[in-house]
Amino acid sequence: MPEKSVSQLIMDDFAKKLENDGLLKPIAAHLMDLFAGKYDEASITNVLATQNNEDTKT
Amino acid sequence: MKILKLEAKNIRGIKRLLIEPNGQNIVIFGPNGTGKSAIVDAIDFLLTGNIARLAGEGAKSLSLKEHGCHVDSRKDLKNAIVAASVQVAGKKLDIERCINKPSVLKVIPEKERDFVESYLAVAKLGQCVLSRREILQYITAEAGKRAKQIMSLLNLSDIERLRATLVTARNKADTNYKSAESSLVIEKTDILTTLSISDFSEEQILKKVNELRDTLGAAPVSTLSPTNLKDGIKIYLVGASNDVLSTQQIEALIDQGKRVVGEKDSISERLSELRGLLSEIQKEGKISQYHLYKRLFESGISLLGGANECPLCGRAWEDGDLKVFLQARSKQLEISQTKEAKIADISLEIKKWVDLYKHVLDSLEKATKQLSPERENSDLQEMIAKLADWSEAMNTPIESFETSQWPTIDLPTVVKSIEFEIKVIAPIEAALEVKGKLISKQQLAWDTLTTLEGQWRKYERALETRNKKALFKARAAAILEYFQESRDQVLERIYNAVKSNFDTYHKSIHPDEAGFTSKLSHVEAELILEVDFFDRGMFPPHALHSEGHQDSMGLCLFLALNKYLTRDRIDMIILDDVVMSIDRGHRRATCSMLKSYFPDKQFIITTHETAWARQLKTEKIVSQKNMLHFINWNVDVGPVCEMEKDLWGNIKDCLAKDNVPEAASQLRRNAECFFENVCDLTGASLPYRGNHQWTLGDFASAAVSAYKRSIRQAKAKLRGKGLEEKLKKLTEIEAKANTVIDKSLVEQWAINANVHYNKWVESSREEFEPVVESFKDLFDLFMCNKCGTTLSMSENRSTQKKVISCECGELSWSY
Question: Which of B172, B486, B565 is opposite residue A1, by nearest beta carbon?
Answer without folding.
Answer: B565
